[in-house]
Design a protein that fits this description.
It is built from one helix and seven strands, in the order H-E-E-E-E-E-E-E. It is 14% helix and 47% strand. It is mainly β and 110 residues long. It has a domain at 35-108: Sandwich (Immunoglobulin-like). It has a four-stranded antiparallel sheet, with no helix packed on it.
Length: 110
């Protein structure tokens, strides 16, 4: 009798610590990894950057302009302070945390 009572007590306390199962179906995003190339047009110190050959799911678009400045978005125009060769880096992210990075050297003339 003592064994049965001990077993029931252990079973009761063991079940009190259990959480119910969550059988709701979860949905996770399905993404295609992003990619693109860096497109640009330059008119002396004025450069317009844009995405070329964009593929996949793109969420966030970040740019490092090679001179300490950063921008975001698919297209924009900037003015460089002086001519030179700048390494521009493009970073694409999507909602599945896929990341794509590419760089290109840009020559800016005066």
């Amino acid at each position: 009798m003592k064994r049965v009572l001990s077993f029931l007590i252990l079973l009761t306390f063991g079940c009190l610590g259990c959480e119910p199962f969550d059988l709701d179906q979860k949905s996770f995003p399905v993404c295609t990894k992003p990619s693109a190339t860096i497109g640009y047009t330059a008119a002396k110190l004025e450069v317009t950057y844009f995405l070329e050959n964009q593929k996949g799911d793109v969420g966030a678009i970040g740019w490092d302009l090679g001179d300490g400045r950063n921008r975001s978005g698919p297209q924009f125009t900037v003015f460089y302070e002086k001519p030179g060769v700048y390494t521009v880096t493009l970073v694409l992210n999507n909602q599945c945390d896929d990341k794509y990075t590419t760089s290109r050297q840009i020559t800016v003339t005066n």
